[in-house]
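Why should sequence recovery work at all? Because a backbone constrains its sequence more than one might expect. Tight turns favour small or flexible residues, buried strands favour hydrophobic ones, and helices have their own preferences. The token representation captures these environments compactly. In the example below, the structure is given first.
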């Protein structure tokens, strides 16, 4: 028998890593792990649906049909996810459903990113055009030399994008768990858990960290616009600086006043966060200072529950201890929708330019072929 050399043995174990052919998808995510995938035009398939004891994708539904289903089943539409593969590389664009808006093309993170781009373009344009044979370091130095308003708008945009990512991952976790429970026939409230649960815990924690960061960067931006010192780096410190004379002095602050998110406390004799902003702060403090989500035994398992008499539609539910009977994704989505609605409004009343930046010949500093 001929012996196989080490080189030949390595060759026989060689396997090319497959790359997906180019393609794309559009899904509408709902709470509970339910989602709809667009087939073409206004024809959507709902998934997962239990057919002959197995999870399936079934259609066709119109957007109107999905809206009726959403209301009748007590679900909430979270966001559109446009995903795809190009040259083997995966991309995902998360577009949240903003309450009160009909056009969902741009999310809150997008409009704040536009603000950053427009401020930066005005600030750095002439400096970049003055460069002669610039190095990457020269360009980077100008790009990073930001004024406080540009910097804080960018921080807000990044934090809001962090919220999008967290919600996307939690929603995906719910969908996968629901499909698995359907496939295993565990549809009578059986409690299940797995090693991927730690992914859920991490993304819930991340959501509230980013939510608190967006809140505090907003406080810093308002303080800057009011002429306060740079040490005001949170909404709490901004509230300590507020006086009655500040009412009507800034459009961002006026929104917080009008919506009851910042109010004067007669007991404390100072301004404090209020309304759902106070609830958000309490949840953020709970998960970042007192205990992480997943630390209680009741949070270690999830179950599938029927949504219809025909027992074809189900939702996944994961307990959250503090709110008796509440689901953690329902809780997170409730906060998420309030945050993105607020920050979308704030961007549009800020006085900043929220238009998508369009590059012109003047914006191209240098072209190099490598």
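From this structural description, the recovered sequence reads:
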């Amino acid at each position: 028998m001929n012996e196989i050399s080490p080189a030949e043995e390595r060759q026989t174990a060689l396997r090319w890593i497959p790359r997906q052919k180019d393609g794309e998808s559009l899904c509408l995510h709902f709470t509970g792990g339910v989602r709809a995938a667009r087939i073409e035009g206004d024809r959507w398939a709902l998934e997962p649906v239990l057919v002959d004891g197995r999870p399936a994708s079934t259609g066709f539904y119109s957007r109107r049909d999905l809206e009726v289903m959403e209301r009748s089943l007590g679900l909430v539409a979270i966001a559109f996810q446009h995903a795809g593969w190009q040259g083997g590389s995966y991309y995902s664009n998360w577009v949240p459903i903003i309450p009160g808006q009909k056009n969902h093309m741009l999310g809150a993170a997008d409009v704040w990113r536009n603000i950053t781009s427009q401020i930066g373009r005005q600030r750095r344009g002439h400096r970049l055009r003055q460069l002669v044979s610039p190095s990457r370091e020269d360009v980077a130095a100008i790009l990073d030399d930001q004024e406080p308003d540009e910097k804080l708008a960018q921080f807000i945009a990044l934090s809001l994008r962090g919220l999008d990512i967290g919600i996307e991952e939690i929603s995906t976790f719910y969908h996968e768990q629901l499909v698995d429970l359907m496939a295993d026939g565990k549809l009578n409230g059986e409690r299940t858990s797995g090693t991927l649960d730690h992914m859920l815990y991490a993304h819930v924690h991340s959501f509230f960290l980013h939510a608190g960061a967006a809140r505090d960067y907003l406080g810093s931006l308002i303080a800057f616009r009011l002429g306060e010192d740079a040490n005001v780096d949170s909404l709490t410190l901004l509230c300590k600086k507020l006086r009655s004379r500040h009412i009507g002095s800034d459009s961002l602050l006026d929104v917080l006043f009008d919506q009851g998110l910042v109010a004067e406390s007669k007991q404390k004799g100072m301004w404090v966060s209020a309304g759902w902003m106070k609830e958000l702060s309490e949840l953020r403090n709970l998960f970042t200072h007192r205990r992480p989500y997943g630390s209680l035994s009741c949070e270690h398992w999830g179950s599938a529950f029927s949504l219809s008499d025909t027992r074809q539609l189900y939702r996944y539910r994961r307990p959250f201890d503090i709110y008796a009977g509440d689901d953690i994704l329902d809780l997170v989505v409730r906060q998420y929708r309030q945050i993105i609605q607020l920050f979308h409004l704030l961007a549009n009343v800020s006085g900043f330019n929220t238009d998508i930046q369009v590059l012109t010949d003047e914006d191209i500093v240098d072209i190099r072929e490598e």
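A few observations help interpret the result. The first strand starts at residue 23 and ends at 30.
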